[in-house]
Amino acid sequence: MAKKKTTKSKKSLPAVEGNMLIAQSGGPTVVINQSLVGAVLEAKKHASIKKIYGALHGIQGILDEDFIDLGRESVKTLEAVAETPSSALGSVRKKPTAADCAAIFDVLKKYNIRYFFYIGGNDSAETTHIINEEARKAKFEFRCFHICKTIDNDLRQNDHTPGFGSAAKFVASAFMGDNLDNRALKGVKINVIMGRHAGFLTGAAALARIYEDDGPHLIYLPEHAFSMAQFVRDVKRVYKEHGRCVVAVSEGISDSKGTAILAKLSKEVDSHGNVQLSGTGALGDLLANEIKAKTKIDRVRADTFGYLQRSFPGIASKVDQQEAREVGRQCVLCAVKSHKDGSVAIKRKPGKAYKIYYERVALRSVAKETRHMPAKFINKDGNDVTKAFLEYVKPIVGPLPAIGRFKGVPVKKK
Amino acid sequence: MAKKKTTKSKKSLPAVEGNMLIAQSGGPTVVINQSLVGAVLEAKKHASIKKIYGALHGIQGILDEDFIDLGRESVKTLEAVAETPSSALGSVRKKPTAADCAAIFDVLKKYNIRYFFYIGGNDSAETTHIINEEARKAKFEFRCFHICKTIDNDLRQNDHTPGFGSAAKFVASAFMGDNLDNRALKGVKINVIMGRHAGFLTGAAALARIYEDDGPHLIYLPEHAFSMAQFVRDVKRVYKEHGRCVVAVSEGISDSKGTAILAKLSKEVDSHGNVQLSGTGALGDLLANEIKAKTKIDRVRADTFGYLQRSFPGIASKVDQQEAREVGRQCVLCAVKSHKDGSVAIKRKPGKAYKIYYERVALRSVAKETRHMPAKFINKDGNDVTKAFLEYVKPIVGPLPAIGRFKGVPVKKK
Hints:
2 copies of one chain form a homodimer.
Chain A (H helix, E strand, L loop, with lengths): L17 E7 L7 H12 L5 E7 L2 H6 L3 E3 L5 H8 L15 H13 L2 E8 L1 H16 L5 E6 L15 H21 L3 E6 L6 H4 L14 E3 L7 H15 L2 E6 L31 H13 L5 E5 L3 H4 L6 H20 L3 E8 L7 E6 L25 H11 L17
Parallel strand pairs in A: 1-2, 1-4, 4-5, 5-10, 6-8, 6-9, 7-8
Antiparallel strand pairs in A: 2-3, 10-11
């Protein structure tokens, strides 16, 4: 269990009086509402925060003045929503222009909003940063915070991010079952995992291994240049050894020039410049067809785990839930007591035991650019994770389903 | 909770003395090991059953004399395996020839096997039936039973089959999360569900609906001729109403001539004559591309739930686990006490309360042909299930994750 340490409070800022607005942005997670509820419950404790509004569908809801009154939700409802996957306020993928920001400030002034919280990943941190910078230029005074989340675990400054642990638990659990399925009916099984630029979630598949022969036998990450020829060689080698092969592949695997393999098949781009990689089985089918064409293996299957990774209910990581809640709470504490803006990052203390603490960091330090898996987490062939990664990820994911196996005493042939 | 009634025991047959062989066949489920363990634990109680062997990978393991001694597994291990998804003895998809049967009998004689149990779906029931008929011709005397399982729920004679309830729970849970994801980031989301000829599993997606606007908004089943034109019209209508649309589609949807839509894209066929429909994202992508081409909706995604439906650990339906265990136990009881051959079917008593009983049925009555969703479970437009289906499926699946939602009091616009 995580030992908590609160962010250092400078207590240098007087609390401002006014209303609060909170919204959610980017890809949902199964614990994003924990952060929302953590922030709302903390806000209720502070006399300086008057009304607590939620904007529907991120900054689009601000532009449309589409707010709900979160102060009128019961604790029971708040707790029920906290346990519920996906963004309860709705989400959006929208990068604000200078004109959008001006319109946003008009709305914030009209509703006397002096506390603004935006829950999201690196694109949402960029949005928060843009709004904060524009506000500075416009001399609009408010407290402006980004509350971190992303299943991709690719936010700078953070040891890990809320949402990742639960998504990683889903992926590891799925591989546990799928490995057993592949052990029963042998063949090559390729599973495509979310993670545009960072391989953390794909790497978490390695937690599924319990016995010597368990898959995933191969893991391909966006951080290591993907070679189709090496992939085919790797699969052949594993198949020869085990008579089967389970593969974990990130949706973001890229060639040596850095072009995503799937990007060649996809044309859709959002306002942050991201190419659509999820919501299609194309990459899995492409890789399966390559194995069918280049080997004599007759049973080759591919699954793309898709949106279930960020939305499957009922199996959230407990540590992830607690940390997501706390990050929301800490952001409100910072905004009331110590800082005008920022994001609260999860940091880990060195040492064997899992101990984390929360630290306010500058918005620009988490915005836009993504964090990648460090080299020490990837094996030298670029087809697996290391023991260091497993030690890193285990406490964030927490307990996994128990898997039994027969002793399997062979009967002497007659 | 299911009220149990044991199969009527004629007690007309004397128990034969000899060894027992059990094996698993066809697609795994998350409770198939419950049936295996139920049979093994019951067998241990009967003096007439001496050794308890498990054949690895179904009848292939018999032909190869690839047996393990299940009598040497501890109760602790047996219980751990019972809770573990996928076929612990390995599986196979193989239809035996007359020559295979002769070879099988040679092996059974050599190991003094007088009790044979084969856990599987309708193809495995056919295999059991073929072996039983060939044994009769060859005057080989043994007790020969099929133990039912299939996530497709398409075994004749059965109200429902072990494995279905847990797969249905996975599908319903997945739709709960995915519906929330689609509510946060609107668009069209198409999810492809397993089920070659029967729509039960796809229909179970409807259990995800809690609130008025919840998806799945459309459900397409193999039992109703699929029209691409109607599909596009349906999606447009729902999208106009809700600003979003979540669709459940069976992998086995077929055109008015009965040809599976996906079969046109797939060439792989197994020895039972089944075309490969799973392990590819092709159908989802085909349908998503059709919506993109024929509408102006800009966000269209497709996921194929794939093998996770039959293998995801840790969330099995309790009722399903209990019934799977009991079906294995009942087959052994029948074999020892009352019948030379057969399968034990799950029957449901009429009435509002969920009450089932177990009944021995003839092998030929469950072999080969599949059961379909009755017309009363499908709405007249062929794009949804009925209330009767929901009442049918609910008790088999059991409790689903709790989903919270804000009261959402709108803030008056200024």
